[in-house]
Amino acid sequence: MQGIVNKYNQVLADSRVLDGFHPAPNLVYLWPPALRAYRRIHRNMTTIKKTISDEVEEHKKNLPLSGEPNDYIDAYLMELEELKRRGEMDHYLSESGLRENVVDLFIVGNDTTAHSIRWCVLFLLCHPQIQEKLQVEVDNVVGSDRTPSLKDRNRMPYAQAFTMEVLRLSHLGPLGVPHESTEDADIAGYRFPKGTTFVANVWWCHMNPKFWPDPEKFEPERFLNPDGSVKTKVPSFLPFSLGKRQCIGESLALMELFLFIAIFMQKFTFRTTTGLPHPKAEGVDSITIKPPKPFQFLVEERKH
Ligand code: HEM
């Protein structure tokens, strides 16, 4: 899978080379670096799709005949089998649809989660005292004899609050994803004709002092209730955007981030190379906002 991740990262880098060519795509043939990027995207995407196709074929060979599916591909294939058995058809479900979905999930889920983890590390380097609090929590709840698991999540509100504050301040998707209206609409006294592009200003929701006192400050405590439990409903917190097309990977992403942070904090301490806190957590604009690259740091194994 690391091979696919590398290939996809190359696709992203090459897409940036082609950014300016959208109004006149044929111009790529006149500029060799753009043509090379274009051809490499095609090659890499073909390899990614082929790897996923092979994975689907492998799943077909080992498909559980009954009981629980092992993963998404199994679940989808089992549903297709069930439809076939009943002699029914569903226009939304097909093997090619499955392959496309897996490519989409892999691509969308990989970049966002990887950047969020890098943001977590950057915020830890900026706030050593917060890192210590996270370590105290994991030591108290899990100790050092076993690896943290999702069962520990409810007893580790500070780790959850930390990941939420990282998602608030990293502005991974500052304007969500643009959507186009399919019919005329009247909203708040304004008329929006069919075909209007809408964006959700997530950045403003996350930085609005009305909802977040001192919004620039990194403060996981804002996601904790007075009794120390983690807040579940925070209407102005929208890292996964909102509405019908909001991120379908939200719960998976939160699980992954929790596990990474809990395991990192149990095993390691992250330090800057100077020994002083990293001065500032600033991002670089790309398809998603990502942390500056490269930022160097030291990883010390914790002695328990
Ligand atoms: C920290 C991690 C993540 C963040 C911040 C994030 C954020 C977002 C945002 C802002 C959108 C746009 C919603 C809209 O169109 O209004 C989105 C869409 C989407 N995300 Fe995520 N995401 C994350 C992780 C994941 C993961 C792990 C997966 C799947 C494995 C995933 C799958 C998707 C898919 C399929 C869509 C498109 C949904 C649709 O158009 O109906 N995301 N995500």
UniProtKB/TrEMBL annotation:
It is a peripheral membrane protein. It comes from the Eukaryota. Keywords: Endoplasmic reticulum, Heme, Iron, Membrane, Metal-binding, Microsome, Monooxygenase, Oxidoreductase. One of its GO terms (molecular function) is heme binding. InterPro entries: Cyt_P450, Cyt_P450_CS, Cyt_P450_E_grp-I, Cyt_P450_sf, Cytochrome_P450_fam2. The keyword Heme applies. Gene3D superfamilies: Cytochrome P450. May be involved in the metabolism of insect hormones and in the breakdown of synthetic insecticides. This is Cytochrome P450. It comes from Darwinula stevensoni.
